[in-house]
What does this fold into?
Amino acid sequence: MPDSAGNNDAFGKSGSQRSPMGYPQARVVAVAECSSHAVLNAVIGGFKDSERIVSDALDAHAGTGTLLLADRGLWGLARWHRLRDQGTHLLWRIERRKARRVQDVLSDGSYLARIEAN
It folds into this structure.
């Protein structure tokens, strides 16, 4: 985004406080419809804001019957339960070390695993 004092204050830059680098950067997390790629909702945070925390505001968009696909950066047990309680169907990619109990290996080599909270 444009390098202005307002954008820098609102979003931040990479580097350090003493030596900021480049342009201010925003973190955008969006919910999009798979077939049309239409963005249904989005949240914009600052460069240093956690993708997981920024995306909390999008949980309300998913509801009964929605299939929500997410990458491993958005995994969280509390979020999983919150979305399941809303009637959302979930298909998430997670880190291998969290999926230790393989339940079924699929034909493409991917697998379904049980995740246990500890």
